[in-house]
Structure formats: C-alpha cells, structure tokens
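Section 3.1 - Work completed
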Amino acid sequence: MNTMASFFERVALSRYAGALAGLIIVSIYLAWNQPVFLSWANLMNIVKSNSVVFILALGATYVVISAGVDLSVASATAACAMIFGLLVRADLGILSAIVLTCGFGIFLGAINGVLISWFKISFFVVTLGTLSIFQSFALIVTDGNTLSLFTKPAFMMAIPNLIALALLSPIVFTLTREFFASGGKTEPEGDAAE
C-alpha cells in the first residue's frame, strides 16, 4: 500500500503531472461525448497515425540527451520515404526495399555526424542546412509528385511491423534512462581532461 501511495505521490509531484492530467481529462471528455473514441479501431488508428513520430522520437531522444538537436530529421524521413516508395513501385521486394531505405537513412545521418563530429561545425548549422538539402532531394527524385503505396500489398503488410516497432518505444526509453545515467556531461573536466 505504501509503495502504491509513494508511486502516486511521485507522479503528482513530477514535471509531467500537468500534461498527464490534461491527457486524462481530454480522454474522459472524448470517451463521454464520442463512444467510438475508446473503440479498438480508433485506438489502432491513433497508433498508426503516430507510429512514425514514435520511431523518430527514439533516435531524437539520444540526440537531445547528448546536448544536440537534429533539425533535419523530418526532411531525412521524407527523403527515405520517397526512396522506399520508388523501390516498392519498382517491385524490388518489401524486404530489400526496407534494407536499402535503412541504409540510405544511415547514410544521411552519417553526413550530419561527420560534419558535426569531425569538422566541428555546429549541429544547428549542419542540420539546418541538411534540412533543406534532404527536403529538396525528396522533391527532385519524384519530380514533386506524390507517391501512393496503399494499393501495394507489400506495403500494407509492412504497417503492422511499423506499429509493433512503435509500441517498443517505452522499452527503448527505459534503456535510455540507463544510458543517460552513465554520464550526461559532454565535456571532460579538470585532471580527467589531461
């Protein structure tokens, strides 16, 4: 009993208490006014709509913990999505398309990493520049056209995997806390730096 009371006390005093209370209030209001809100189909729709954001947040968490910001993540995602769409449309196969798209995403991330780590350019300047470059690339490779894959069975098969990966985000965030606890300072101090 004391453990449960302690848990609720920590939640009530945490910096997330306001956001959590707001979420609960909005959810209760929607569930009361819209019975479909708590239906399984609607809950799955919410997860589908936010699964990409969840996955991007996993990588962004480590960037923020290391005292950085990646402004190009949305543009890099758009560029990778266009590459994936072109590969699937070319009937390359869903597995090959996923592997090649991941490799392309790693390449884009490596560009940012090399410029920031090796050339010592500010992460703000680098990612602001690559934001425009990646976004332009996404437009150029498709001539500004929209790619729709919803008629492709292979793409529809990939959606449950995307949702499953997004649902793993709490596990990754738990591991992130351990990573952060191992040392959050980016600069060495005193004798340790010599």
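Second construct:
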Amino acid sequence: MLAASSKHLVALRGPEAATQIGELSAATVLNRVAKLHHCPAVLEDSRLHVLLEKVAANVPVARPQSLASTAWSIAKLQVKDAPLLTSIAAAALAKLSEFGTQEMSNTAWSFAKLSLCHVPFLDAIAAESRALIWAARTQELSNTAWALATQVL
C-alpha cells in the first residue's frame, strides 16, 4: 500500500519518524501517494495521517511549489481537511507573488475540487492570474478558469 509509493514511507513507523522528513520531501511523498492512490485503504493508513501532520507543520514555511503540490495531493486523495487547506491558503496568500502560473493553477484547482471556497485566496488568485495570463499555458488557464467559475461566492 503506502510503503510501495516511496522509500520515505517505509521509514514512517510512528509520529516521531515524521520529523525526519523535510518540507519538500513531505510534499513530494504526499504527491507520490496521491499519484499512486488506487486503494481506499490508503486513506485509513496511519502513515498517511502522520505524513499529513508533517505537511501541515511545514505549511507556514513551505515554498510555492510545496504548497501547490500539497494542495493538489490533498484534492487528488479527496482529503477534506479544511484547517489544513485554510492554512495553505493563508501561506499562499503571503507568497502569491512568488507563485508561477502552474502553482497558482494547481492550488486554485485543488480548492475547487474539494469545494472549499476561501474568498480572499480566490480574489488574490483572480487578480494575480490577470497579471500572468500571457505566461500561462492552455491547461493552466483552463484549470484556473474552471476553479474560479465553480466556486460559489
């Protein structure tokens, strides 16, 4: 199950082991779990919950790529953790000028996929997207447009 998705997860035997994984590694492991997720039992695996705790602890200092990857992974796994997503939105708002078009698109998509409407975050994404529209690829434009259009404000 989870252990097959990454060598890091093999080492996770308890909450204390999570401290051995850094910010980028935790987001990367979570991303790999989300990409390989084929089994509902993954959501019940205690190692996933340890990993989510580690990711949550890193959110305030996470880089844009880690924030976007974490949000995408949570949405892909359908983990409805509103406090974690709210902290991601707060951290992303503080660093939105550092986000590239893909990070912005993926993060907006993630919130829409989980039906979490964070108005200040969405307003900032909409404003920042206008400034970066010419740098965005088609997929990023369509994901961002879909995300903003599907949110009920």
